[in-house]
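User: Could you walk me through two proteins back to back? I'd like the raw sequence and the structure tokens for each, with a short line separating them so I can tell where one ends and the next begins.

Assistant: Of course. Protein one, sequence then structure:
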Amino acid sequence: MHSARATMQQVNYKIPASILLICFASVFANSALHADTENTFDAVAPVLIRHCLQCHQGSEPSGGLNLTTAEKFAAGGDSRNPTNNRAVTASLLWERISSGEMPPESTLSDAELASIKTWIQAGTPWQDRKLHLFDMTTKQRAGTDWWSLQPLKQSTIPQDFRNELNPIDAFVKAKLQSSGLTLSPTADSATLFRRLSLHLHGMNPSQKNHVDLTAFNQRYNEHVQEFLDSPKYGERWARHWLDLARFGESNGFERDKARPDAWRYRDWVIKAFNENMPYDQFCRLQIAGDCLPKAGTDGTIATGFLVAGAYDDVGQSQQSAAMRAVVRQDELEDYVGTVSQAFLGLTTNCARCHDHKFDPILQSEYYALCAALDGVKPGRRNVTPAAVIAETEEEISHLKRQIDETRTRLNELESTIRQEVSKKLSKKQAQQTAVLQPVAHWDFNKDFNDTLGTLHGKAEGGAFLQDGKLILDGKQAHVLTESLKQPIQAKTLIAKVYLGDLEQGGGAAISLISEASKRFDAIVFGERQAGKWIAGSENFVRTTDVSAPAELPENESRQPVHMAISYQADGTISLYRNGKAYGAPYKRGNPIYYPEKTRIGFGIRLLPVGGNRMLTGQIEHASLYDRALTADEIKSLAMGQNFIRNEELSAMISKEQNASRERLRDKRNQLLKKNIQLRKQYAYAVQPRQPQPTYRLIRGNTATPAELVIPAGIASIQGVNPSFQLPANASDKERRKKLAEWITNENNPLFSRVIVNRIWQHHFGTGIVRTPSDFGFTGGKPSHPELLDFLANHLINSGWKLKELHRLIVTSKTWKQAITENTRGNQIDVGNRLLWRGNRSRLDAESIRDSILQMAGQLNESGGGPSYQDFRTFNFNSQFYEVLDREGPQYNRRTIYRMIIRSGRHRLLDAFDCPDPSATAPKRSRTTTPLQSLSLLNHPFTIRMSGHFAHRVRNEVGQHPIDQVTRAVQLAWFRLPTLEEREIFTTFVKEHDLEALCRALINSNEFLYVD
């Protein structure tokens, strides 16, 4: 992340070169670099690394003195005046360091001074080695000896607590004992039951069934199993993972185009948690699921993790290749940063411009990870399971035959009807149609020629004619005409199109393509809005999204569509579908002046051929006009081509004809709907490409590439080989597969440590390491290192089953502690890092909303499937979203099923720190603001749910205020009210009604916090 890099300013000690050279005058030309006393260097090397090397290494060492190798050391500094003197008393080096003048920012210990003295006396021998800042941990940075990079240790349960049933308690008690503290008592049954529900399910207990709290402790393990077996468990813990994955269902940035298929990744994560998928497999699939032979379509869906973040589609479509390269590097930084932080707890992305300032990560290693992920691009992938394809293939074929038969009968009927109606049209209308002469017209009956002029076309890429139509396959097939014979500015484009695939996006029916530039104007389908038409143009400079219905089977999208776009001289652009305005006219500057060197394309948006520029379907005819036709003229043309609108047609024919037509239309629509249900299933996931050569970029600048880099891991992580043993031209499949294997290797100490720390954090509020995605120097050190490694080994030995880790944690006395206070505990450990008591925490935004819905009896527990959309969209060049408080069961699902639009933020959820999905969120903020109280008290959702809450209470206990108070408190707080509370609340209900009490309970701390 750029922000992270910006904070990492290099420490630069300013030491005059003359002083440095004087200090080292006795060593520069020493001829004893390989003396028998070389072992003295072993003691000096750590001193040089710790106190000197920060300034004296790299391409521009301070004072010109480089201390990384014997040769560079002997070369001296800027003055080039080395001397040779073994006498300590004559050495200015010794004088400077013994006086404390050097090093300038710290003082050497007596032992360090003694080692340097011995080294000078020995003639400053230098072993055949290279010093590097990464060699050891210093006060400024981590080295390869940093704690988190070392192999897992087999932690021994503390001797004094070997009798503890749960090993977690043994480690925690031992740490407490050394500080003079003990565990707090166990919380009461009601508190523990609610804590279990909120931690494992993310909402209050449902209380649909009676819970016998008197027998709770005896059945505790059974309750834990029930919570882990519930589908609510996966919904809860998937939410934590989606925070890490920066999961959103739109692109973000300026356009913020929606991703209608992104929900499949969310559902896959929920399913993986509920099925207790081994964590190593869970992660491998998200990195390389589409590269693994047995992963199937689920593996493809899982790669949605890599591309779940924001996508700069505007930046990716820049005309400037240099700008596109920068945007691509930003995209790769997002991939590398997310992967390394989520799975390894390393901020590898901070090495994009230079070696990591705090951790032992080389810049070249950052680019090696970029190389491993260079084949990753986002896109829609066909994830229809093979079994489903096999099962439905015959049914689909049968349906298609039925659809074709029905369509033929309907077309014959409508053709007959339209011919009859056309005869009834006024002579004026017929004359008006006749005088609308285009510049060029193509009917595709016999050839690709212009029937009015010389703009004859040539078929390429397999385009052909059939039954008077141009057939296009959406891959390579297209037609290009001769160049225009006259310049053109104001214009109208018209085409009669049969769409072959409603899920395609970006192909054009007809396009004016400039040969001298990338400019074009075209009738384009589905590029920016699924199923909708736009006036396509280079980089969308003359394009605006339309507020018009998408092409769907229900509105005859499988019938031919007469599309027209007029371009007026003042820049106004108008779209028409079947003679009717399609969206509102808009103005985006003046229309492009097309010179003679312009060709007409059919089935292609712009050159070169390929990608999403190609149209799948058929074109019956097309026309080009050298002026902007009026709305009436376009309507007249559409009607002249038998495009009489349905409502007009229905009014002109008999009841019998109408009835026959409607029966056939209904049958066709039902068949089409069923066919679509059996057709392809798509997911927003990795769309792999052949990786390009990757170079280390000097200072991260795309204009200054250095050496070629091949895919590899990070060498400082102990226990795993960083070499992927791949050639520079390795495929994307090979690269991501090797990356996944390296990350998930059970000998990778970070992989297991990071995930057990995340699980611990969500149960205790803070991880054993405070910084869940940074196990490096700027992160925290573990409060219980032995426990961390014990849990990591436990996870591996359990087959990477996360439910087993949850079970171990929630059955421990440590987790069950009550939230108590005592003076000694606060004096010794006010932050409760030693875990001498339970931690109170506020519910997160989703848990608050879900618990309110459940308490009010309004929760729709249906899971999976497309997200609910509590917003409406509108377009003004870009996509905009207005979040609404919509009512109905479909909007009362758990919040994880809400469609997450990056620019469509939910005010109530945001008030309670719901994170921005544009960046990974390893730990949510926990703010306390007046806006939270005001939002929860006055938001329409809260007010409405308060009414449902009161209605539920009345239905369950009747109209007596005391009974209502008792039940309302029980539902909100999972306990009975005290006598004092009952008296106060009963009086309140009598004065202000039950709805007001329910609203107050929703706003209470006891509801909003988990004890």
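----
Protein two, same layout:
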Amino acid sequence: MHKATCHCCILHRPHLVIPHSASKGKQAGTITLMKTVKLLLLALLGAGLLAASLVEAIVAGVDFGGEFFKVALVKPGTPFEIVTNVHSKRKTETIVAFDGDERLYGADAATVGVRRPQTAYQQIRRLLGTKLENPQVKALLEEEHFPYNLLQNVTRGGTVSLKHRDGHIYQAEELVAMVFTHARQITDTFAEAAVKDWVVTVPAFFSQAQRQALLDAAEISGVRVLSLINENTAAALQLAVHASYDPEDKPRRILFYNMGSTSLQVSIAEFSSQVVPDGFKKNKTISTFQTISNAWDESLGGARFDLRLAEHLATEFSEKIGEDVRKVPRPMAKIRAQAKKTKMVLSANEEIPVVMQSLYNDIDFFTSMTRSKLEELSADLFERTLKPVEVALEKAGLTVADIDEIELVGGGVRMPKIQQQLAEFFDGKDLGVHLNGDEAMALGAAFRAANLSNSFRVRQVGMTDIASYPVGVRLVDLSSTENKDNDNNNDEVDSKQWMKRASLFSESHRLGLRKSVSFAHSSDIACTFRYDKPSMLPAGVSVQIGKFNITGVEEFTARMADKKLGEPKVTLSFELDSNGIAQIAKAEATLEEEVEVEVVVKKEAKKSKKFKKDDSTDSSEAEDTDEKEAEEEPVTETVKEMQTKTHRQKLTVVRAHDTHAPEEGMSVLPMSESIKKESMRMLKEMEKADNKRKANLEAKNSLETFIYKAHDALSAQESEIKKVTVPEQVESLQTKLEETEEWLYEDGDKADAAEYKKKMSDLDSDLSAILSRVSELKELPIAINTAQEYAFSTRELMTEWSKSKPQVTDDERGDVLEKIDELEAWLTESEAEQKAAPKHESPVMTSADVAKKVQSVKKFVIILSKRPKPEPVKTDKNGTKKDGSKAEEETSSKESDSDKDEIDVETEAPIVSETEDAADEAVDKEKPADKKDEL
């Protein structure tokens, strides 16, 4: 795995420089000191900013699937990691459930979904950016029998909302935002820091409305999306990270076959190498790929095969009981869960028994299922598995022989029948499993996030993605749009009406590029984005993408009317951004005017000569007095000429409708800013309530655990406890424990965290006092004995030091012995008081007190033990001792000489007090003690 490298500035520690030259003076020293302080402050500030940037540097990629989501994390200096959830799993169910006032996610929500399916919302990604009549939405209710109460949002063009059984209505984006919030929480916990920047995968067939709805859901959840990325593109990027190709070889064409839970997607990409600049006069070779075609079956995923099996089991059980079990949510939820498990087992086994006890009305269900039976039930589905492959090849203009590799992605490809069909279709070519089919898309999204972030340096990979649908634009006068007939799905308009059409982006158009359209016009404009080929769209997707009003043209025309310059030129720049969303990037109106202006032009220059300067000229100005030819003197004149002046007006672009009722052919509306603000407020309140509930539960569980452990401790150490208590103390504590336990399951069941913590603190105070006295029965005698042994050995050590350590004075050794005397006196006195004190009361002395007293003596002894021995007296080559006074005279002489050059530099000397903290520092700085001095 490639490691991400963070761009981190290296902060060097500045050195303090004080000059010793008298000629520099105090001013130089002061300036240098000021510069040094400034550097230190900048270094500290930089270090703080660096620390902050490292926190912001963490990014993530999420493969947001219809059934599961996976998150890959990128932290500076560490490999890419797959985030594990609260159950230590690498993938999490895309479900949110409501259990009373509590929201549940992942496996917990899935469990609730079996018991109470009407409170657990699955497959919620399908509800984004679409209408109730979408076949994918209708299938949830009619074919998959989910007991959801789906509504139509009449103010946003018919978007889907969901009515919970408590009467609360949630928009689809809000439900998805709840799952995003859970993904953010488990990722933050895993990263041990807040992760704000994300890249999110989407199916290639997602419309603009669906993509925008996913972005809105992420925004209101607090997740900042750097970019969306198509699922197969993310998998291709993960493959390219580790790929290596020869630049001289022809590109390798790889087909990605991705069957997930809800859809089948096929993409063909060309992989090659490219030589790019790498610094000054250097080049390097990087891997690069470009997607050349996409195809899909948006309703053919692994869940569709699960449904066939569930329908078969439901039919068999219904015939057994004489009642249609599909109409009963709970047993149908159990059948769906069992069908999924059965299909997974049949991928590796030919046959499996199916057992569901008390499925309905205490009736057990026993049957068996074979792989051949599943293939028979799903025969029409298997016939659809190769159609997207054929379409992808046709779009790319390729044949089977042109494909070099096939990569399998997604959980649905584990079915043996699908692999068999692919192998036959590609004439026996190996089906590649170079990628982890479950995690490749999350890892590719994370790599994309690291590339988009400014905080990482990762391996450079060239990536080109393409649009999924061709997009065009229709322009009409804004005033004419009052006629609703112009907004419908028909392209028929009044022949007298001004209108322009343009095809902007083909289905293979590269994402992130712009295209401009220019025309002469004097009125405000209504701009409608549309899909150019409705036949390519999945069922239920509106042809219209969005409608925008472009204003400011009429105002600009009126303002410039006096100049009689004609109609303004309107230029519209359109962009299909990296999210796959078409938008107006820039709108401008211009008029050109020919104006007469005065300009300064140069004429032919004249030459002049300079002669010898007069004798009276100042000597400093008379250095060059020889005759010489001067440079050309510029001569200018003012003339009039015609120039083109461009008048520019930035135009205003706004969405045509903040609200509108559902209408045939019109796209649904994204969340407005006011709606997003209200949704964020609601979600924050719910998250705050969840956090409070979680804190209460944790405090309650802690109190409950403490009570159990307290009972165990009183029972396990009963004999020792009797030695340090009176019966009333134990009885009082046991009574408190029992009363608290009773309160916990009755009145205290809904208490808040603060009350739980207070009760536990009160109980802990009583229990800890007893257990501490029990512990001291054993620990205190040991501590006293250790202290006495230390005192004895230290006395012997001082005797030895009188001979071996002349650097330690008699007074200092006397100080040590005095401290030992004080220690022994304190031990004798305190031990006597302790023996006289009642055992059930707080002890006079503890083992910790003894250790602290001993440590204070030890520190003093260690400082003395590390004092170096005096250096031996040096002698000259004749063996004669150097005269100490002479050396002192020489030193004094040198010092007096240096007084002449000394500068007055004020410095602050560190003040060291005779405290234990100073002793600690001295211990660290002095050289190590001899081993024989260690105790």
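The two ends are 51 Å apart (CA to CA).

Let me know if you want the two compared in more detail.
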